[in-house]
Amino acid sequence: MDLETLWRASARERERERAQSFLPMDISAVISTIIVLVLAVLSLPLLNTSYWSNIRSLLPFTIVSPLADLVVKNATIYTSDASLPFADSMAIRSGRILRVGSYSSLQDLVHYGTEELDVGGKVVVPGFIDSHVHLIPGGLQMVRVELRGVSQKDEFVRRIKEAARNSKHGCWILGGGWNNDLWGGALPLASWIDEITPDNPVWLTRMDGHMGLANSLALKAAGVTKSSEDPNGGTIIRNSAGEPSGLLIDSAMELILALIPEASVDERRVALLRASRYALTRGVTTVIDFGRYFPGASMESSWEDLSDVFQWADSSRKMMIRDLIRKGGASMSEWIHYGGVKAFADGSLGSGSALFHEPYADEPQNHGLCVMESDVLLNMTAAADKSGLQVAVHAIGDKANDLVLDIYESVASTNGVRDRRFRIEHAQHLAPGAAAHFGQQRVVASVQPDHLLDDADSAFKKLGEERAQHGSYLFRSLQENKARLAFGSDWPVVDVNPLGSIRTAMKRIPPGWENAWNPSERVTLVEALDAYTISAAYACFLDKHLGSLSPGKLADFVILSTDSWDEFAAEGSASVIATYLGGAKAYP
User: Any transmembrane segments, and where (predicted)?
Assistant: First the structure.
């Protein structure tokens, strides 16, 4: 019973008592005076919602229905909770959801201090969980040379020339996001930019993060020459004369990256805040952060970011979104959780280093790279799993996915039954039967729908029509085989944009195409939303606290621009109007 109801009941009781003269007038007056005084005291801070949580602890009786700080009403709420998928209103208290249902069903939770947010019929969904990001690199890239979307060599060169003009002598020029498929497929060369960068070493990563271009000054500084050998798990691309072309793949990138000055602590802290603000504009309230780790690199950078950046942000109350870091396996606070460990099985399709059973159609001698020896990967997985940690392995090619699935099956058999939720990151290209193995083993397929937009043309060139058409981005097959789909972006490889990714998963129409790429693998709006919410929360062991708008869970939600669920379900088109974390507006 709330205080307002208690007051009404008490008033009725006083009138009944006085009418029947059960009590002397002076006692009745005393009771009335006490209640009026209490209400007079309570009325002073009625508009201060934090007051109610304090006063309840002082009351000598239990209030059956807690009081809401915020009620969201006049909405089309998709909850991602199968027990009640849709509602029109939601009550929130102290950052968590009290109740979801019709507006009339929440009236006992409303009091004079409750804020009521009328969203005018807009669609409301749970806060999006991006299942795969590199948050600090994303924030750093936002102020570096941006090459995403560049479709001509001249524009590529122009942007580097402009950066060189604005750079001090000897300073590194850093950037990324280029995709050679956009200008016809020819890979960039150091010779493209050597003449315009004589005084500045340059490093430009491909959009997938598995290949980069260095100018000749950077190659010279790294000691990369004609006689240099390819490192394990990496390749130095050479021209017809055997000279390094400037391109380095996977672990070979460390030859250059080891020379690039580390971003300062302050730069990384600013990058975290910059990235977090940007994520909120896209409705992202939680991210699974895979840090700065890549094949061949030391894991020290991830540990440094944890201590220097994330713990700083948490202790100084600067965290804006919830972050699960692929380390350890516990909660540091309500903002930061340690998620487990990550490893790599192969590279990427665009760089020709994804591992396949059959050779690349355009490179008959190339099957891709096994970035980590299978026995090493097996031992690492077994040890981490035995310690109770969640394991996530990067696998893109069909052979890499089969390898990881076999390792997971072996480790589960050896270590025994437990709720381990093994993950495969990307799972882009699968051999026949692999989708069923995902489901049988309950392996999480952590996929990034927008990758298919960038890979569409190159997949057919590199794999041939049969393999590209029937083995790539098998979202529907994974779903029907009971695998858990968790959607993400892989930002800054592609933009962090859940609504865009949801539309991609629904439509599967790459740029310049009239028809869908393998339309039988499309998913519905509800399936895509779940993959960005409740399934994404399940994939990182946070489903008891996040992922759906259910009583007791954190009140992270997004208000969308559309007021028609039917149109949204048909076209997947909407934008973010507002983002709320713990019931408080975080954007705009």
Answer: 21-47
